[in-house]
Amino acid sequence: MKKLISLLIVLVIVSSIFMGCTGNEDTTGSEPNADTNTKSNDSIQIKIACVGNEDHQSTIMAKNFQEELEKLYDGNLEIDIYANASLGGEREAAEGVKLGTIQMTVVTTDGTLPAWVPDTQIMSIPYLYETKEQAYELLDGVITEYLNPKFEEQGFKHLGFGELGFRHFTNNIKEIKTAADMRGLSIRVQEAPIWFALIDSLKASAVPVSFNELYTALQQGMVDGQENPIASIYTSKFNEVQKYLTLDGHTYAPVSMIMNKDFYDGLPEDLQSAIDQAAKNAVPRQREAINNIEEQYLQELKDAGMIVTKPDKSTFIEATKDIYKLEEVQRLVNPEFVELIIDSKK
């Protein structure tokens, strides 16, 4: 009897071990390394953060990208655009993309991105681009080739450059006809050292203020003025708190579409291809849209009472011509990169 009981116990133990092993094999599934972004039954979610309002250039870029991607990819995809800095300012949006908490954002290229890719401040070198067409050619060619590896090193997939436009000064103190008239003004700038060098060369004072706080800063007189493209000035209603617009076009400003690289790399190849093509299609659409409406915006700013001046641009060029040679700027932007751009224009 004792032997029979012992035998039964052994059989029970062996049976339990066998059933346990079988259960473990079933729970692993047929795809042990499957990424959650690529499961066919799951919706792939892409959150796009934008600081501007629904009519801002960055938001238009995001909407165009969304439309193009939805046309190209028929998989289970959910794209949500968060405008009006609802996910934070440009710094927070870019950090979110880097960390992977936000899949994608559209931000000013030379605004917050220099924190990770200093050479993006090539766009802050004043009077480097003479026309938009020249800027497009350089951005889509030599600049993309130079910067893309640097973006990837920082965990970003750079999808393309959209349009902000040539940047111009506004202020609420006086009309600006020459560079000398800038002396003494406090000007809001993006938080990047090269912008401080630009304003300093004009004998004005640079004050960093986040874009989503800029209207209030101008309204309360925390700063005398700011600088932005015409479309940004109009859609942000800066004319309500600024009297003078100076069309000096000191820099050409693009926006960058960036995606978390790990997120991108974890997507199916067909979706990666669709994302690449959607960005390629969206860029010229957005540029054309902004160009078409910029003259209308300028006229409406004039009609609203803004005093618009075309200054003696040569005085601004002369005052800022050696900025890229400054030691503090060379630590940020490789002077050989600047020379590459200059040579590419010839």
Automatic annotation (TrEMBL):
NCBIfam families: dctP, TRAP_S1. It comes from Anaerovirgula multivorans. GO terms for cellular component: outer membrane-bounded periplasmic space. This is Tripartite ATP-independent transporter solute receptor, DctP family. GO terms for biological process: transmembrane transport. The lineage of its organism: Bacteria, Bacillati, Bacillota, Clostridia, Peptostreptococcales. Gene3D superfamilies: Bacterial extracellular solute-binding protein, family 7 (3.40.190.170). Residues 1-19 form the signal peptide. Belongs to the bacterial solute-binding protein 7 family. Keywords: Receptor, Signal, Transport. The keyword Coiled coil does not apply. The keyword Nuclease does not apply.
